[in-house]
Amino acid sequence: MISIPYYALLETVFAEQGVELYRAFSTSDGKKVLLKIDQCGDTGMAAARCSHELAVAGNLDLPCICRPLKLEYCGDTPVLVMEDRGGVLLQQYMRGRSLAIDQFLLIARRLTAATGALHRHNIAHKNVNPANIFIDPLTHEVFYTGFCAAAPVCGEGAAPNPPPADNDPAYMSPEQTGLLDREADYRTDFY
What is the rounded CA–CA span in Å between residue 35 and residue 4? Predict the structure, then answer.
């Protein structure tokens, strides 16, 4: 694990595709947080993606997101500090597990409600995948992260169009591939 000033790292949550996510606590106030380090591309682009994520989701007060709190730097590397609501990533939760139909439907309803809450707050996530969703294994509550591709659903929003994100091709809508002559909108969250 790396060392980030003012934070004690507890565990690596995710480390794939140039993104590292750590569970930590702040040594200044003792709060548990998530630390996201984006190392996809140059530091300027990584900083732009982290800044965008903070601008889009930082002011949202929704129980279904791990809200970005601030942007810190470790040398030249941007580190996005986010709320830690607990749980595990959905991709880890599903690994080697098969759900009963009632569990599947409960999780699906909660994901749909969380997506609806984002849309009602004029945010299209545009990068919905199991690596951007935390789930509490006991309560099955879900929490979105990974707002680097998010954009306003319609009209003026909190931030301009996002910097290019490295979305997982397995979860991209056809509009996001660039093969169609259509703009990706909020409906991509349902794909």
Answer: 9
